[in-house]
Amino acid sequence: MLKILVIEDHTHIRQILLKMLEVENFEAMGAENGLVGVELARKYKPDLIICDILMPKLDGYGVLAELQQDPDTATIPFIFLSALAERKDFRKGMELGADDYLTKPCTANELLSAIASRLEKQAKYTQQEQTAPKFPPLSDTPEA
Amino acid sequence: MISANPTIMVVEDEIIIGMHISETLTDLGYQVTDIIASGEEAIERAAELKPDLILMDIILDGSINGTQAAKAIRESLNIPVVYLTAHTDKFTLNLAKETVPFGYVVKPFTERELYTAIEMALARYQAETEVRKALEAEKELNQLKSRFISMVSHEFRTPLFTILLSAGLLEKYRFQWAEDKKLTHIHRIQEAVTHMTGLLEDVLVIGQAEAGKIEVNPNPLDLKHFCEVLTEEMQLTADNGQQIILVCPDFPANTLLKLDEKILRHILGNLLSNAIKYSPAKGQIWFELLWENETVIFQVKDEGIGIPLEDQTRIFEPFHRASNVSTIPGTGLGLSIVKKFLELHGGEIFMKSELAVGTEFTIKLPRNQVEPN
I want to staple A105 with a disulfide (CB 3.0 to 4.6 A). Which of B160, B254, B268, B309 is the partner? Predict the structure, then answer.
């Protein structure tokens, strides 16, 4: 079962999202602020992270920046889900390394398809890494 | 802003004429900061001395003339310039006009001509400065307004998202979900709509207050009776057995005070409903009414969750809610409205709070609002 971490300070929204992910057969976990989010991401290495931006303690940008520093968490697909709907906010998120940026309000289907496409792409990356032929040993390398 | 003895810088390349001008100005009661012969030096010295006015000759020593120096000074320092020159030909006049001078005095001048020209220039400069200040204040207000609008739209997105998500889930899983689960989502939608309605109402109140559309109508009010009725009303809204205890020991009964009942109800109602909202079940709330020399004091004290220290300074800002409110509903506008209303009524508000111990709000209304009948 794939693990998804939801970092969102609005309790109602967090609960609805967790419920929805559960129904969709994900293993879902919630964090009520950025600091807890980073901690859970490091501890459980989820397969995908959904993250709000405006949050107490550590905001979503801060969460992403933290996770990008650590190679173990840097490649986890990361989707911003924010009420900040201005172009500059969106660009900032993408430039920090987000994989997608949805603005509230969005529909359940929009969010679920965003998750599905991120996971699909991630699966392809993983597969590619496994099936790509390895370089031959150094001694056999043809002379230039 | 312009002192009783305005400072004037004289730019004149003929030293004798310069000294004559300077003497005349001193006789007229002005302070002469400097007599300067070149345009370049004039620009430099004006920046250092910042005189109230500059008297500028047009033909000067150095590579730039008086109009060029005036233009540079106007652009960088915004000091009024009055030309003082023998030239009245069209070409010179056109050059001078382009720099929008505050006056143009033709040599030879009489003391009276110089005096009136300087006085008119100083008066016009002062008037322009006031207009500029008003414009800046207006600009600042507009920035505040657009920031408020962006905050409001942001605040609406969260409940809208709740509605859209819950409705989406109901649509998707309507055949597989049990009734109680469906009801949960239906209730969430209803709560979100209630929240948005509250938000809308609060935003409208703030808008009215900002636009100066809320009138203060002080009328004789029996304050003790008013507080008793308000306490009863608010008690009915306490769903979890919280108890409001009205305390007004020394407050004289049947004393009529001139206060706006509607505004006062809004202020105190808001503080009491906050106290109820953030109190534990069966928590006690003290609503105290005091009379101190020249002031009426209201105190609302609860045993609730308290306000964290880092939120205390920002608690009256629009949309700022304490970090420990969890799922307790609220718009984050209540206290900013209270503060605004108190300003209308000439009152003050103070807050004391300790996390997990409780919060105490104190309101003081001054005596000029309160006339014993």
Answer: B160
